[in-house]
Amino acid sequence: MFEFLGPVWGMQRTVEILALLLLLLGGPLFVAYTRPDVLDWRSANHAPTNILPAPAAHDGAVVAVMAARAWGWRGAFAVHTWIAMKPKGAARYDRYEVVGWGVQRGMRAVRQNMRPPDAPWAGNPPMVVRLIEGAAAETAIPKIERAVAEYPYPERYVIWPGPNSNTFVAYVVRRVPELATELPAHAVGKDWLAHWFPLAPAMSRTGVQLSLFGVLGLTVALDEGIEVNLLGLVIGVDPLDLAIKLPGIGRVGMR
To answer: In terms of Cα–Cα distance, which of 123, 110, 131 is closest to 65?
Structure first.
């Protein structure tokens, strides 16, 4: 009897492994197959999209958390995030982000104003993740500047599991209460916690997060819902918004 059950258990385990691989890689494979490919980042569109309030017409302070699909094959799995901000009365925005290009040649990973604040990322259109204006933005800007200066990995970039561009933005968001928001579920690297400490508030400040080196973790929060991090890829459900979160695709649902 037990000799018969051995192959059955083995087949069940194989099916479970294949189902997990499909869950983790199905979304990225779908994105890779369906999205247009930018063949050369040097000729890609980096012009402003004008989706942020224009400084000439908007005197007040503005802070935006931005995201766009990552470059090349990485874009099948993840978005790239950055922060743009404009103090009250300023004539332009400042853009802060982490970039891996040139780090091995001694360049800093943290870059300022490498692109216009709302420009596409390697041709991929940007979106606004979080926008704050007025007094809240004025209060947030010096805190953001301080968090950028204190970021613990200014000269380090690791595509996976981090620290990368999304690790940087998540670090800043966690330290600026006015920025409280959930980053896109497919912002791979957002769950890498500074100094490898495994516990932190959720980025929305409505729950808690447990993360082991950015490759295994769990977030439970009112805004995020439940997010399970497996190998840096997030699978989740947000009951309040009737949404699910899938690797490579991100949030699918009412919001």
So the answer is: 131
